[in-house]
Every structure is written in C-alpha cells, then in structure tokens.
Amino acid sequence: MTATTTRARAPRALAALAVVPLLALAACSGVSTEAPAAAEEGAATEESTTSVSDALDVSTSPDQDRIRTTESAEAIALLPDAWKDKDEIVVAISAGSAPPLGFLADDDETPIGNETDIAQLVADALGKDLRLEVKAWADWPLALGSGDVDAVISNVTVTEERKETIDFSTYRNDELGWLVGADSDITSITKREDIAGKVVAVGSGTNQEKIVLEWDRLNQEDGLEPIQGPEYYEQFSDVLLALQSGRIETYVGPNASLAYQAAISPQDFTVVGTLNGGWPDTAQIAVATKKGNEVAPAITAAINHAIEDGTYLEVLQRWGLESEAVEESQTNPPGLPKTE
C-alpha cells in the first residue's frame, strides 16, 4: 500500500453522500490518507445511495472529501520543539468498530468515520500532514508509549488511571443513548423512573448494563415496577430486529452508533434520551498523547480552533453526532475515577 498524506486546505462543501452499512469491516494497518479531488457534478455512486426523506446520507467511498480547517497560529506556537520540524502527525485510529466512529470504506481498506475526520482537523490546524495508522484497541497503548504513533483518536475515554501515562485533549462527550422504534409509545427517557416496567435491552458486561441494573434497583427501592429483563444482545443487528418486531421496547448503548442509526433510518428508529457514559460521574472522549511530551496543549488549541471556525460541528453533523459536541476542548480534565 503506497503511503500518501494530506495537506491543509480551506473547508469545502460535502461531496455526494451514501448510506453506510451497519456491520463494521476488518481492519488493515499502515493506512494513510490523501486529500480527495472535488467530486464531479452528478458523480454520486448510485449503487451505494439510498434516498430516504430526512435521512442522513453518508459517503462510504474512500474519496471522502473531508471537511478541512485552516492552520492555527496559536496551536502551532504551542507545539513543543520536538514537534516543530515534523512534517506529519501519525494518528492511531480503529477501523473495526461500528459506524460512525471508525470503519472501512467501500474498498475494505481506507479508514473513514468521525475519528478520521477529527484527526484531519487536528493535523490541519497544526499545519501538518496526516498519516493514519489502523490499530486494534489492545495495541494502541503500546504504540503510543513506544512513539510509533504521535496520537490516538479512537473513542478513548478520559480516566484517572489512563492519565498516569497519557495526556488528553477532549473532543466529544461520552454519551449513552436510548434507542426505540420510530412508532414506539416511548417518547422520552431522561431519568431512571422512565424505564420502570419497560422491556430494556443492553449488552452484557458493559458499563451501561451496570447503570441499568442500578437504576432498576433504585426504582424498586422507591416502589416502582421493575424492568422486564434486562434482555441481553451482543449483535447490534439483532437489537434492531428486536426493536422492529416489538420483542424489546428500548436498547441502551453508546450513543454514537445509536444516533447514527436513527439519523440514517429515521423511519425505523429514534433516540429518545441520552445520559453521560460515566454516570453518575461525567466522562469525555479525547485525543490521547504520550504523558509529558507537552503536545496536548497544542492539540487542545487545534480542536478549539476548529470549534471556533465551525468545521468541528460540521464534522459531527456529517456523522449524526452533533448531540455529543463539546463547547470547548480541555487538556486533562477530571477523568472517571479508578475502580477498586
């Protein structure tokens, strides 16, 4: 695979878009990106486009025509000396997760998604070329610690334990969502009382399972009806079928995937509420860099530059994730506490 890189350029309009498939594809490593050429008028790939009124259309082509920002003098000035002469920034991302965070394009090779777009904004603002390295979740901490990659943008939650070896620059709120069928009688789930008596589905062994069980326990202490279940599902495709058939009433999971699904299939699904993934604490998703290399403030400034010029929100809107937007990027905010 030939290595290519991208240079900063002015933001441009989104290219013709297409619906992303549900299932994530297998990842490859050592993938780089190239600034795509402008799409010819009317050149949308008809075979990968579904026209649904009010649905979010998303391109799955390797030619992403990413949203771009400009260089930030403030961010560049904050770069440590070791980074000033670097021509590129190497960012580890995952490409085996469900859309829209990080997955593979139609060529089964090029990583695309919200995380790659955020990486592009950071590189642009720092005046660097971008090189993406696809890493399995278990492999990125070693790659970051050894210096094989400069940063990780892979849905990494800020925790106090991780802060011992990692510096963070936040770019998204860590949200869970409540997904229901579009024709559901459930219109809002914003507090624990709202799930009393409902058929609730969740993934086994997840943080959201702990939250559901705790909400149910507190509800029963207050004399409310217990939930029916929880019902456990490991495959998201099975969840969608269960919601459509009425076997379950709601599913709680990472809001990024749920919001995306509701955005591309509004005729079938809707998100009726969110809660922070760190409940009762607050969790945030952040760019991870090696502890002590002093680059985090520059990356934080780069993200804030994109927030200020609007390209950050454009990226989140592109993937249906505007509900998870942060008002300001922060360096090393309080993270989730260590577990005993």
SS-based class:
alpha/beta
Q: pLDDT average, as an integer?
A: 85
Q: Helical stretch count?
A: 9
* Strand composition percent: 15-25%
CATH class assignment of the largest domain: Alpha Beta
Distance between the termini: 45 Å
* Fourth-level CATH superfamily of the largest domain: Periplasmic binding protein-like II
- The CATH topology name of the largest domain reads D-Maltodextrin-Binding Protein, domain 2
The total of beta strands comes to 12
Main sheet summary = 5 strands, mixed
Strand arrangement, major sheet: 9-8-10-7-11
SSE order in H/E notation? HHEEEHEHEEEEHEHEHEEHH
Low-confidence runs (pLDDT<50, min 5 residues)? 1-52
Number of domains: 2
The appropriate CATH architecture of the largest domain is 3-Layer(aba) Sandwich
Q: Sum up the overall morphology in one term.
A: globular
Q: Helicity, in percent?
A: 25-40%
Report the C-alpha radius of gyration, rounded. Answer: 20 Å
